[in-house]
Structure formats: structure tokens, C-alpha cells
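Listing S7. Sequence submitted for prediction.
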Amino acid sequence: MKPSSRMDYALKALVDLALHQGTGPVTVASIAKRQTIPVHYLEQLFNRLRRKGIVIAERGPRGGYRLGRPAGDIAVNEIFQSLEPGGLFQHNGSTRDPATTVWRQVEQAVQTTLEATTLETLAAQVRDQIPSGVNHPFTFHI
């Protein structure tokens, strides 16, 4: 199972945003450049995330985006539900079907992990990867 590119890009962009909290709004173009994400695609993702309150847009010449709440208050599951409302799996079998039962258990385990993981958790992992002396986040892999 591999996450969608939409989810992968969103997590990279949001962690980048979390790493820049406190420096003012961050432009989509700067995040896109650092994380090698197409600007147009990132704008679409941020529009969806803005409607869910995960990010806040600030207009003007020094505008950009910032997180809607502290990074520690934004669970990855909330981001996932905002971008993938259909969930991880499509359940076509009966509840007595062993395959359906196991996939539901897997989905519950994944959901539990996504609920327990916040943007701050991911940002802390990235901070630990940044070589000393580097003052800005580099392209990273989550």
C-alpha cells in the first residue's frame, strides 16, 4: 500500500510549513521549490486544506499560508480525511468475509497511527535530519 501522491505532497508541504511557523506566511512557490512539488498542484491542495481550516491564507504582498492551528494539534488523519474522504479501502465484501475482516483491521490500525501522528511529530523527525549549520529545511522524504 502506497499513499497517493496527493497525500505525499500535502504532508511534505505541511511539514515544510510547520518548520517555518513563526517566520510569517510562507508562499506556495517557496514550498513548491523546496519540496519539488508543482506550484499549481500545491495551490489546489492548499485550497482544499484551507476549506478544512488546516491552513490559513493571508493575502497581500507579504502573504502566503500558515497553519490554522499549532502543528501539534493537527493529526495526519485529519489531513488524510480532508484529501481522501473515501478512506483507504473500498469494502465490497460481507462482514463475514475473512478478507473484508482483515482489511478492516488493517484500516483501523492505519487510522490509529494517523490519529496519533501530528504535523509536529513529523516536523521533529525532519528537524533531526537537518545537518547542523543548515538554516533552512531542505527537500525531505516522509
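Caption to Listing S7: primary sequence and predicted C-alpha cells for the chain studied. The first strand starts at residue 55 and ends at 58. The first helix runs from residue 5 to 19.
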